[in-house]
Amino acid sequence: MKKLYLVDVSAMFFRAFYAIRPLTSPSGVPVNAIYGFLSMIIKLLKEENPEYLVFCYDRKEPSFRKELYADYKAHRSDMPEDLAKQVPYIKQLADVLGVPSYEIPGYEADDIIGGLTKWGRHHDMEVFIVSGDKDFGQLIQDHVYLYDTMKDVKYDAKGVFEKWGIRPDQFIDYLAIVGDASDNVPGVKGIGEKGAIKLLEQFKTLEDIYENIDKVEGKSVKEKLIASKENAFLSKKLVTIETNVAVSDDYNSYRLKPFKTEELKALLHELNFKTFEKSLFGTVSDAPATSLIRPAAVKRASQVKEATPAVSATLVITKEDRTFREGTTTTRDLAEFLSEGQILWGLSDTRGVFVGTETDVMEVSDFEYLGKLTDTFQIRWSGYDLKSFWHKIGAKTPVAGWDSQLAAYVLKAGDTSDFKEIYSKYMAENLPELLSPSELYNSHRNLAATLLNELRNVGSEKVYEEIDLPLVKVLLSMERLGVRIDKELLAQQSAELTEEIASLEKQIHSEAGESFNVGSPKQLGVILFEKLKLPVGKKTKTGYSTGEDVLSSLEHPIAKLILQWRELSKLKSTYVDALPTMISPKDDRVHTSFNQALTTTGRLSSTAPNLQNIPIRTLRGQKVREAFVAAPRMKLLSVDYSQIELRILAHISEDPNLIKAFQEDLDIHAATAAEVFGVPLNEVTSNQRRSAKAVNFGIAYGQGAFGLAENLGIPRGEAKDIIERYFTRFKGVKDYIEGTTKLAHEKGYVETLFGRRRYIDELKSSNNMLKKFGERAAINAPIQGTASDLVKKAMIEVFEKVPVRMLLQVHDELIFEGTEEDLNKHTQQLVHIMENVAKLKVPLKVNYEIGNNWNESH
């Protein structure tokens, strides 16, 4: 959701005046209120990174409330002289900071905020009212918050109740009763906050109170209410924030604009705010490695072959420095000088969208038209997080020239979403809080040049150019397509789960011998370890640990019931109830976001919804997959790599027995059991196969005897014996584990088959547990990382060559949508690509199925 921040200027300005000690500028002007207000705004800009921010002002002339009540605000004293002198600077600050301002004759700032809050919610925005004024409690609702920046607190409906003892929908009635001395709102004379809360707990609204006046407890309270009835209803009108205020319907009216660098610097200098000058502007210096970067054409993924020169040959580095001409342009003006394959930089921050050329950096307002130009001219974009930029401008078939976010991710896998953080890491300096468009452009180009040099230094250009960069447009297409959800089926599942959860809760209470909140770890700990006297696994700072590992170790029926309750509760809240709320009204589909630069493993992840964690081994999890359905007259196709990580292990370890099993297309777990237990393949028992399967999957994660014993529920000695027999028969795997661990300690990293590095920082730790974790990660990373790279390479090639709609990627599985005729026509080509995307010492194999929903096709 987009976020809209509405600043109650008068309230925040007054608070700053009284909170900051007296300060004066060199010319003798008081500046403490300006200083405090600017501090608050800078904190807001830094921590919230708002895209939409509005300063809302009161006006000098009376509001409509004066017509309702002549004495409204009659007792207000004049503004302190030292504060009055500072008022003109606030609007000046708004202008140079690029913050939109709003004032409307006849209305107070509160009413403007009320109108903009209503507008924001109508447009599905989250609204944050920046004020310390409790009157805004009446506006709080879902996705509307009261944000007190000085106390650093955001109040939602629950917070309002905890703070004032009143629900937001009762706040107007509460204020009508207690009145407001500062605004001369009379209220009910003699009844204060506690009395108002007590009345509203009983009668809910002011109207209910007077309709049931005979039921009011206490003669004195009743008399006060009767005596002040007229004032009570007058006060209700006076304290009600007007929300039907005519405001602009143009989003750009509320968007932050680029700040005016020279004017802002001059104002800060005039006020002698040296600290702000330094923190806001600083300097964007050139580090030794920083030079400007000009991306050349990027080949289509289908054209990229093993012998293709990597990034170093397709990008040109220059040493020159540039001062770019800043300006604002319409996108239609921009179109006049575009040509096929034009190279542009796309920059986006909370203050707008900027396009960089070799000479200019321009703010562009018409995003949609820019997206159309992108597709028409096949513009080659460079920037940071291109996918998000393309979504913002609505591009459908864009071309990626350079993405610094992905370059940083290839250099070291992890969360690289924060541009400023990555800039600081590689440029060895912090960016100022505010950057002009030209400075922003230079910082992006300089970082890109540094990252490119780093890619060359470590030999990671090929991974970046052949896997990560071409995948961006594939993920963009998948996110735009989305997947259809069966709302009715989920509603039915939600009802069923509600009953199952309630039944489990009853059984849990029965086992416990009393009712308690099953979702409270604290209450659960008391029941398990104090009342039932079960063995305590471990304790935390806040009490007993009730994690899954602890519950799984308890030999009591209640533990299994709680685990079932948690699983169903999480499934219901995370998917069954949440998925319908994520359906887009535009196309009736859910659009997940694929995170390409987040995980340390190299795998993709997804959010809103997270599709990677839907349980597939449980019946309930499979039912959730039934709700992912094909569009009318279409089907879904699932193509899933078979035991891809074990096949990669066979290839990397070069173990002859593993290779033989896959080459002969044997049941790998049965074949492993036959080797480990020394029995013919056709005599392997189900228990032997189960043990072998646990070893096969555990080995790739560095699992030892303790883990295997826990997994299989067998003595540690027996588990140790199974592992020793495994290593005897699969010596190549043992050599791989020992060799990889040793190499990881020496180099500090491991690599996938394609050269993607995974740095293992835990190996440097003095903590033995962390070091052991690092060793397990080192064993697994080349396997899991290679599997991830293979899937990505397959996605790129399928996207380029097969005309079917790719919707989802979940680990080793790809989901497609099309007519049954088209899917049948192209499935074999698709399977061929996936099975031949790389040549290993064992064959790659995929399974596929066509169905009406994800579960049927899985």
Q: How does this model look, in words?
A:
- This protein has 858 residues and is α/β, with parallel strands linked by helices.
- Among the domains are: 3-160 and 243-254, Rossmann fold (3-Layer(aba) Sandwich); 282-462, Nucleotidyltransferase, domain 5, CATH 3.30.420; 667-754 and 764-777, Orthogonal Bundle (DNA polymerase, domain 1), CATH 1.10.150.20.
- It is 50% helix and 13% strand.
- It contains 37 helices and 27 strands.
- The protein has a 6-stranded mixed beta sheet.
- Strand 10 and strand 11 (352-356) form a beta hairpin.
- The chain is globular.
- The relative contact order is 0.06.
- In addition to polymerase activity, this DNA polymerase exhibits 5'-3' exonuclease activity.
Strand content: 5-15%
| E-strand count | 27
Shape: globular
Output the CATH topology of the domain at 282-462: Nucleotidyltransferase, domain 5
CATH class of the domain at 282-462: Alpha Beta
Structural class: alpha/beta
First-last Cα distance: 32 Å
InterPro entries: 5-3_exonucl_a-hlix_arch_N (IPR020046), 5-3_exonuclease (IPR002421), 5-3_exonuclease_C_sf (IPR036279), DNA-dir_DNA_pol_A_CS (IPR019760), DNA-dir_DNA_pol_A_palm_dom (IPR001098), DNA/RNA_pol_sf (IPR043502), DNA_polI_H3TH (IPR020045), DNA_polymerase_1 (IPR018320)
Coiled coil: 487-514
EC number: 2.7.7.7
Keywords: Coiled coil, DNA damage, DNA repair, DNA replication, DNA-binding, DNA-directed DNA polymerase, Exonuclease, Hydrolase, Nuclease, Nucleotidyltransferase, Transferase
